[in-house]
Amino acid sequence: MSTEKIADAVKFAYWVPNVSGGLVTSDIEQRTSWEFEYNKKLAQTAENNGFEYALSQVRYEASYGAEYQHESTSFSLALLLATERLKVIAAVHPGLWQPGVLAKLGATADHLSGGRFAVNVVSGWFKDEFTHLGEPWLEHDERYRRSAEFLQVLRKIWTEDDVDFRGDFYRIHDFTLKPKPLNTPERPNPELFQGGNSTAARQNAGRYSDWYFSNGKDFDGITEQIDDVREVARAHDREVKFGLNGFIIARDSEKEARDVLREIVEKANRPAVEGFRGAVQQAGNSTGDKKGMWADSSFEDLVQYNDGFKTQLIGTPEQVAERIVDYRDRGVDLILGGFLHFQEEIEYFGERVLPLVREIEAARSTDRERVGAA
To answer: 120, 55 in Cβ contact below 8 A?
Structure first.
């Protein structure tokens, strides 16, 4: 078990439902909406219930249950302007964005929000989004090489003047961005998140990003990833924080929570799940070491399309809180939560689960101090 920590307390984020269809590809009722007014209220509810971050999804056209989609950066800015404390992470695709243009947008969003804008660099899994827009589709490792350059260019433009960058994918010549992001001690430059399970993704995270996002994982799976990324980061004199995806089903009884999971899977939209499975598992299996995202995901795992059931945040408030702190003890800094009924379940989480997380964290910290003093 890894006990190294960067933050004292685990932080919480939620998936912004800015695409239709909810967070599970199932015909079960999902009391949620992709429309702005719903999401505006949800963001305000989340920041008042202990959530520090929200992640806006990126899809450019209908796919696998997501018939409608709002663009992530504009939607993120709207949510930032509707809230006071929430940090909103916009997912973006290198290959569909020029990094200097995104750097300009990000600096403006950072000023307008008082330093709360962040970026999640997504290397891409949905081939049609690129080919339908007339853009080349690169193979897995080439996409991550492009993302590595993208992360470097963003950081340079946000922190340096007269930027020159000569890469295989991007060429920047004597470029200076003004104004730059706020970059105060309280609000440093926009945080850079990056996900993926593959060796290439881990290398990028360890070398260039502030945060590494993982798909849903059990204890052994996340520990292996954290240890690997930390080793890369230390080799480059860096530290990286870790976010973990988990679909949260907290109910008054464990039976009720397990029944909800069972119903979600039983009512899965099989053609949509199988279509998604075919699209993503070829990406995961295209890596040489088979460590790509979704490479080992079962049908049930993919009903929640980021393997959120694997994290097993399912049960009573006490059970979910205990498991969250167990992940914290293994080095997870942030839980990225998905929910079936977002508005009411985020309220339930803030009232019933999060206070227990803080109690357990405090008790374990006291125990560690007592053992250390003995």
So the answer is: yes
